[in-house]
Amino acid sequence: xxxxTLVTLHIIFAGIWISNLLADSFFRKxxxxxxxxSDERKFINIYLKFINFLSSISxxxxxxxxxxxxxxxxxxxxxxxxxxxxxxxxxxxxxLLLIIGIIIIPTAKKLRASLGSDYESKNNLSDESRSxxxxxFNFNTIINIIVIINFLLAITHRYIG
Length: 161
Prior knowledge:
The protein is elongated and about 55 Å long. The protein has 161 residues and is mainly alpha-helical. Helix content is 80%, strand content 0%. It has one domain (2-156). It has helices at 2-33, 39-71, 84-117, 127-156.
C-alpha cells in the first residue's frame, strides 16, 4: 500500500516536472516576443516565480519519493551492476540538484536583483539582465533535457534490460 502510494506520488511529481518543461517553453516565447516592450519584465518576473514554484515542488517531491521508493524496494543507491537504469537516474538527479543549487538559484536571484536595479529605461533590460536571462534559459534547457532522459529511463527500463 505504501509502495504504490509512493509510486503514484513519484509519477505526479514527474508530471509536474514535465509540465515545468512546457511552462518554460511558453514563458520563453512570451519573453522573446515581448523583448524591449513594457510586458518583457512582467513575463520575466512571472517566469521566475512560476518556474521556481514548479521546480521546487517537483524536485523536492521526486527526491523524497525516489529515496523512499529505493529504501522500500531493495534496489539500493548508485549500484550500476544491479539496475543500471536506476543508478543512471540517481546520478542524473544529483547533477540536476547541483545545477539547481549552484547555478539556477543564484542566477535567478541575480536576475531579480538586476531587474530591480535596471535604470537605463523603463522597457529595456540592461546587458547584465539579458546575460543572466540567457544563462538561465541555457541551464533550464539542460535541466529539461536531463528530466526527459530520466523520464525515458523510468518508462523504458523494463524494455532495455
